[in-house]
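Render this sequence as a predicted structure.
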Amino acid sequence: MEKRIVIIDDHPIVRKGFAQLINREADLTVVGEAEDHLSAQTVISETQPDLALVDLTLKESDGLELIKTINAQYPKVKTMVISLHDERVYAERALRAGAKGYIMKSEATENVMTAIRTVLKGSMYLSDDMHARMLSQFAGNSKKETSPIDVLSDREFEVFRMIGDGLETREIAKRLTLSVKTIETYKSHLKTKLDLHSSTELIQRAVEWNLLQK
Protein backbone atom coordinates (compact mmCIF):
# COMPACT_ATOMS: atom_id res chain seq x y z
CA MET A 1 0.00 0.00 0.00
CA GLU A 2 1.39 3.39 -1.02
CA LYS A 3 2.30 5.87 1.70
CA ARG A 4 1.02 9.38 0.99
CA ILE A 5 3.27 12.40 1.57
CA VAL A 6 2.84 16.17 1.42
CA ILE A 7 5.74 18.60 1.08
CA ILE A 8 5.57 21.95 2.86
CA ASP A 9 8.34 24.32 1.79
CA ASP A 10 8.35 27.93 0.60
CA HIS A 11 10.61 27.22 -2.40
CA PRO A 12 8.87 25.66 -5.45
CA ILE A 13 12.13 24.24 -6.81
CA VAL A 14 12.84 22.49 -3.53
CA ARG A 15 9.33 21.02 -3.45
CA LYS A 16 9.73 19.78 -7.02
CA GLY A 17 13.09 18.20 -6.24
CA PHE A 18 11.80 16.33 -3.21
CA ALA A 19 8.67 15.26 -5.10
CA GLN A 20 10.76 13.78 -7.92
CA LEU A 21 12.95 11.97 -5.40
CA ILE A 22 10.01 10.51 -3.49
CA ASN A 23 7.91 9.59 -6.52
CA ARG A 24 10.70 7.35 -7.81
CA GLU A 25 9.84 4.96 -5.00
CA ALA A 26 7.16 2.44 -5.90
CA ASP A 27 5.53 2.54 -2.46
CA LEU A 28 5.62 6.32 -1.89
CA THR A 29 3.69 9.11 -3.57
CA VAL A 30 3.53 12.88 -3.12
CA VAL A 31 -0.14 13.87 -2.93
CA GLY A 32 0.21 17.60 -2.28
CA GLU A 33 2.42 20.62 -1.73
CA ALA A 34 2.13 23.84 0.26
CA GLU A 35 4.18 26.96 0.94
CA ASP A 36 2.69 28.29 4.17
CA HIS A 37 0.60 27.49 7.23
CA LEU A 38 -2.81 28.08 5.65
CA SER A 39 -2.20 26.19 2.41
CA ALA A 40 -0.61 23.35 4.40
CA GLN A 41 -3.74 22.92 6.49
CA THR A 42 -5.87 22.91 3.35
CA VAL A 43 -3.80 20.30 1.52
CA ILE A 44 -3.55 18.06 4.59
CA SER A 45 -7.28 18.23 5.13
CA GLU A 46 -7.95 17.37 1.48
CA THR A 47 -5.36 14.61 1.03
CA GLN A 48 -5.09 13.02 4.51
CA PRO A 49 -1.41 12.05 4.06
CA ASP A 50 0.63 9.64 6.16
CA LEU A 51 3.53 12.08 6.44
CA ALA A 52 4.12 15.83 6.15
CA LEU A 53 7.63 17.01 5.36
CA VAL A 54 7.97 20.48 6.85
CA ASP A 55 10.59 23.19 6.43
CA LEU A 56 11.04 25.48 9.41
CA THR A 57 11.01 28.69 7.39
CA LEU A 58 7.80 29.03 5.43
CA LYS A 59 6.19 31.82 3.45
CA GLU A 60 4.72 34.23 5.99
CA SER A 61 4.59 31.53 8.66
CA ASP A 62 6.59 29.40 11.08
CA GLY A 63 7.30 25.69 10.67
CA LEU A 64 7.39 24.92 14.39
CA GLU A 65 3.92 26.36 14.90
CA LEU A 66 2.66 24.44 11.87
CA ILE A 67 3.97 21.17 13.32
CA LYS A 68 2.06 21.88 16.53
CA THR A 69 -1.09 22.59 14.51
CA ILE A 70 -0.78 19.39 12.48
CA ASN A 71 -0.31 17.30 15.61
CA ALA A 72 -3.32 18.88 17.27
CA GLN A 73 -5.70 18.80 14.29
CA TYR A 74 -4.45 15.76 12.36
CA PRO A 75 -2.97 13.38 14.97
CA LYS A 76 -2.65 10.51 12.47
CA VAL A 77 -0.34 12.57 10.23
CA LYS A 78 3.33 12.17 11.13
CA THR A 79 5.60 15.19 10.66
CA MET A 80 9.29 15.36 9.83
CA VAL A 81 11.48 18.43 9.41
CA ILE A 82 13.70 18.84 6.35
CA SER A 83 15.55 22.12 6.75
CA LEU A 84 18.71 24.12 6.13
CA HIS A 85 18.74 25.12 9.80
CA ASP A 86 21.37 23.45 11.98
CA GLU A 87 19.89 20.46 13.78
CA ARG A 88 22.01 21.24 16.86
CA VAL A 89 19.94 24.40 17.31
CA TYR A 90 16.52 23.35 16.05
CA ALA A 91 16.12 19.57 16.39
CA GLU A 92 15.10 19.52 20.04
CA ARG A 93 12.58 22.30 19.50
CA ALA A 94 11.14 20.44 16.51
CA LEU A 95 10.79 17.21 18.49
CA ARG A 96 9.13 19.06 21.37
CA ALA A 97 6.70 20.56 18.85
CA GLY A 98 5.76 17.03 17.77
CA ALA A 99 8.01 16.20 14.82
CA LYS A 100 9.05 12.56 14.53
CA GLY A 101 12.29 13.29 12.75
CA TYR A 102 14.76 15.95 11.65
CA ILE A 103 17.14 15.93 8.71
CA MET A 104 19.10 18.71 7.07
CA LYS A 105 18.74 19.45 3.36
CA SER A 106 22.50 19.07 2.96
CA GLU A 107 22.25 15.33 3.65
CA ALA A 108 22.66 12.82 0.83
CA THR A 109 19.44 11.76 -0.93
CA GLU A 110 19.74 8.19 0.38
CA ASN A 111 19.79 9.55 3.93
CA VAL A 112 16.66 11.59 3.22
CA MET A 113 14.85 8.48 2.02
CA THR A 114 16.06 6.52 5.05
CA ALA A 115 14.69 9.27 7.30
CA ILE A 116 11.31 9.27 5.55
CA ARG A 117 10.95 5.49 5.78
CA THR A 118 12.05 5.45 9.41
CA VAL A 119 9.40 7.97 10.40
CA LEU A 120 6.71 6.25 8.32
CA LYS A 121 7.44 3.03 10.19
CA GLY A 122 6.73 4.81 13.46
CA SER A 123 10.30 5.35 14.68
CA MET A 124 12.15 8.57 15.42
CA TYR A 125 14.84 9.80 13.03
CA LEU A 126 17.85 11.98 13.84
CA SER A 127 21.35 12.01 12.39
CA ASP A 128 23.85 9.72 14.11
CA ASP A 129 25.63 12.73 15.62
CA MET A 130 22.45 14.30 16.97
CA HIS A 131 21.16 10.97 18.23
CA ALA A 132 24.39 10.34 20.14
CA ARG A 133 24.36 13.91 21.46
CA MET A 134 20.83 13.59 22.85
CA LEU A 135 21.43 10.12 24.32
CA SER A 136 24.55 11.39 26.03
CA GLN A 137 22.67 14.33 27.50
CA PHE A 138 19.83 12.07 28.64
CA ALA A 139 22.26 9.66 30.29
CA GLY A 140 24.04 12.53 32.03
CA ASN A 141 27.36 11.59 30.48
CA SER A 142 28.04 15.07 29.18
CA LYS A 143 27.02 18.57 30.02
CA LYS A 144 24.63 20.12 27.59
CA GLU A 145 25.99 23.19 25.88
CA THR A 146 23.88 25.94 27.32
CA SER A 147 23.01 29.22 25.73
CA PRO A 148 20.74 32.08 26.76
CA ILE A 149 18.81 31.27 23.57
CA ASP A 150 17.73 27.96 25.11
CA VAL A 151 15.48 29.73 27.63
CA LEU A 152 13.38 31.32 24.89
CA SER A 153 9.98 29.91 24.00
CA ASP A 154 9.52 28.71 20.42
CA ARG A 155 7.66 31.88 19.49
CA GLU A 156 10.25 34.14 21.15
CA PHE A 157 12.95 32.17 19.36
CA GLU A 158 11.30 32.74 15.96
CA VAL A 159 10.92 36.46 16.62
CA PHE A 160 14.58 36.61 17.67
CA ARG A 161 15.67 34.79 14.50
CA MET A 162 13.60 37.09 12.29
CA ILE A 163 15.07 40.17 13.98
CA GLY A 164 18.48 38.73 13.14
CA ASP A 165 17.39 38.37 9.53
CA GLY A 166 16.75 42.11 9.43
CA LEU A 167 12.94 42.04 9.50
CA GLU A 168 11.06 45.01 10.91
CA THR A 169 8.35 44.58 13.54
CA ARG A 170 5.48 44.93 11.07
CA GLU A 171 6.97 42.31 8.74
CA ILE A 172 7.48 39.87 11.63
CA ALA A 173 3.88 40.44 12.72
CA LYS A 174 2.67 39.77 9.17
CA ARG A 175 4.68 36.57 8.80
CA LEU A 176 3.55 35.18 12.14
CA THR A 177 -0.03 36.42 11.72
CA LEU A 178 0.18 38.40 14.94
CA SER A 179 -0.38 42.03 15.88
CA VAL A 180 2.43 44.57 16.00
CA LYS A 181 1.66 45.02 19.71
CA THR A 182 2.16 41.30 20.32
CA ILE A 183 5.54 41.34 18.56
CA GLU A 184 6.56 44.35 20.66
CA THR A 185 5.65 42.31 23.74
CA TYR A 186 7.82 39.42 22.55
CA LYS A 187 10.69 41.84 21.95
CA SER A 188 10.32 43.10 25.50
CA HIS A 189 10.46 39.51 26.79
CA LEU A 190 13.57 38.90 24.69
CA LYS A 191 15.37 41.89 26.18
CA THR A 192 14.52 40.71 29.68
CA LYS A 193 15.54 37.08 29.14
CA LEU A 194 18.74 37.98 27.30
CA ASP A 195 19.64 40.78 29.73
CA LEU A 196 19.62 43.45 27.04
CA HIS A 197 18.79 47.08 27.70
CA SER A 198 17.69 48.46 24.33
CA SER A 199 16.24 47.51 20.97
CA THR A 200 19.61 48.29 19.40
CA GLU A 201 21.32 45.73 21.64
CA LEU A 202 18.61 43.19 20.78
CA ILE A 203 19.09 43.70 17.05
CA GLN A 204 22.87 43.44 17.40
CA ARG A 205 22.66 40.23 19.44
CA ALA A 206 20.16 38.67 17.01
CA VAL A 207 22.26 39.55 13.95
CA GLU A 208 25.43 38.21 15.57
CA TRP A 209 23.66 34.97 16.56
CA ASN A 210 22.27 34.44 13.06
CA LEU A 211 25.71 34.98 11.52
CA LEU A 212 27.21 32.40 13.86
CA GLN A 213 24.62 29.83 12.80
CA LYS A 214 25.50 30.40 9.13
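Summary. The beta strands are 3-8, 28-34, 51-54, 57-58, 61-62, 78-83, 102-104. The radius of gyration is 18 Å.
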